[in-house]
Amino acid sequence: MAISPAPADFAPLLFAGEWEGALEAAVELGYDAIEMSVRDPSDPVVVACDQGVRTHDLKLSAIATGQSFYSDGWSLTTDDPEVRKLLDARMFRMVDLAAPWEALVVIGGVRGVLEGSERDRQEQYHRAVESVQRYAEYASTLGVSVVVEPINRYETNYLNTIEQALDFAAEVGLPNVGILADTFHMNIEEADLACSLRMTGKRLRHTQFTDSNRLAAGQGHIDFGELGQVLREIDYEGYLSTETLPLPDSKTSAQQAIEHFASL
Amino acid sequence: MAISPAPADFAPLLFAGEWEGALEAAVELGYDAIEMSVRDPSDPVVVACDQGVRTHDLKLSAIATGQSFYSDGWSLTTDDPEVRKLLDARMFRMVDLAAPWEALVVIGGVRGVLEGSERDRQEQYHRAVESVQRYAEYASTLGVSVVVEPINRYETNYLNTIEQALDFAAEVGLPNVGILADTFHMNIEEADLACSLRMTGKRLRHTQFTDSNRLAAGQGHIDFGELGQVLREIDYEGYLSTETLPLPDSKTSAQQAIEHFASL
What we know:
2 copies of one chain form a homodimer. By secondary structure, chain A is an alpha/beta fold. Helices cover 45% and strands 13% of the residues of chain A. The first copy, chain A, contains 10 helices and 8 strands. Chain A has helices at residues 19-29, 44-55, 67-70, 81-98, 118-140, 162-172, 183-189, 193-200, 224-233, 250-263, and strands at residues 2-3, 33-37, 59-64, 104-107, 145-148, 177-182, 204-208, 239-241. In chain A, strands 1-2-3-4-5-6-7-8 form an 8-stranded parallel sheet. In chain A, strand 4 (104-107), helix 5 and strand 5 form a beta-alpha-beta unit. The radius of gyration of chain A is 17 Å and the shape is globular.
């Protein structure tokens, strides 16, 4: 389940700022792993949470990195050498944090948005490709993979669909770059969720079964039975995760999700 | 179909700024009526379009009013007496424009957003209720109805769901206040689209069958066959409309929609 060890400027996370409660709930509810949304990997609360994952006999499945854009305004598209240097250093530390767990580093909100003229946008897109190349090359030396997450049109203006994310990953052109599929975003962007999920094939490395209203699976109208069947068809070997709004509260949402997963 | 006679700061409209082409396409494709998104009802282009609807033997089904918020920042929640006066005058002219057609006046984006403390938000909500009461009271003298449209969380922070819109309409407490259901918003907000649509019952006065990706019905994953069945069950007598992004272009979208409607 997706949590934030520190308070966050991004809503759909459980137990924000309450990592100890998060880990206890994860153990109690039968989760195998947690995924952490991290702004600064050197933040003592992140280090403590990472250690807590070990002592609770859990695993770290993935590290979400969007807070660098949401809270600091740093994005993959930047043409400011100073910001690029800061963000590169931070993303490399994300990879270091992921390495002992073979966890994934997520390229989600950190992509930022494309702005300005068509030519400006092409340059920004190209800088995003190059940024992910730098991270993935470093990550490959430590056995870590990077995953690109399609995000719906209201939160960013590029890489909204699975197809666009696959094209982006193909431009990056490295074997340790895959796709994260979040069904909440897919419900808005994909004409056929099962078809799009099937299309990811071997590039699919991480899956968030979040319902249509961003609540736990089973609380909205997405047919997770059908999507679960697609995961079996494509021999998916990654985690099934839940990244939801903390409603009605964090623990209830985490419980609803894992109960629905068990029912599939 | 939903058009804008003038260019608009709101994307999901067909033929923005090209009302003559819109009316010709509507006639050619077999539409009975158009709905106009209007910023200023006294704008000569709006007057000309209204006249054009007559000469093309079409009808005007509804007037969308959100541009007053999107372009001018005027909203139902305002505590500025000057803005309230300007917006009231404009909304009354929307009712005048609707009257000869018995068209609906839509309360969509013009609601604005709730801001500040919990108490501020309650006051803003209450002002929105009172605003709709003023418009609906005036509208009732001319045989016009007002419809409240649930809009998804990314575009506003209140009246997102059908249930919330029904509660709001109940607070307004006038018989000529109903609901507009747009399936694009419902796909994000409603846990069960058919159930929510059924719940509107006699309050449902206008329906936009827009697909999950804001394209014409049939281009996304919404089951319009099921929703059409609900409309029959509740003896719906209003229009079936399409409010989509102009993709791949305005006319193609209008054609896709009406062909899908015919197939239901």
